[in-house]
Each structure stands twice: as C-alpha cells, then as structure tokens.
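2024-03-11 09:14:02 DEBUG pipeline.ingest accepted 1 chain
2024-03-11 09:14:02 DEBUG pipeline.ingest length=82
2024-03-11 09:14:03 DEBUG pipeline.predict start
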Amino acid sequence: MRAAFTLPFEEGMKVERDQFQRLVAGEQSQALRHIFFGEREAQRVTDLPADTKPLTVNKLVVIGGGTMGGGIAMSAANSACP
C-alpha cells in the first residue's frame, strides 16, 4: 500500500510484482495449493463406474453440539434432512 502512495506508478507495480512473487513462492502458498489439490483428489474413487448413482440419505444423526456438530445439524435442517 505504501508503494502505491509514495512511488510512481511503474515503480509501484514493480514492488507489487516482487511481493506477489515472494508470496507465491512462500511456504504458506505451497501448503494452500497442496490442500486445494489434495481435497479434490480425495473426492475421487478409483474404479467407480460412471453410471453409479448416490444413495439417498433417509436419516441423519449428529453426535455433539459443538461448532462442527452445530453446523452439520443446521445444514441438515436447512436441507430438510430428517
């Protein structure tokens, strides 16, 4: 932000580009990309036939009323899941 106010436009853009490249190469950025692709890979089931249909959820039980349990219960209630 400081560069945007104190430097000429081209120099400010260079500072922004340098900072962006530093952040992209950083450990946190690499970890976030790893998580992003890992989550998508985890959803794949190998050797699953393409015509497989998901089963209907007829009843849901939530054990625990903490942050996660409350969120799951609220999502189930919002989608009218018994």
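2024-03-11 09:14:41 DEBUG pipeline.report The chain has four helices and no strands.
2024-03-11 09:14:41 DEBUG pipeline.predict end
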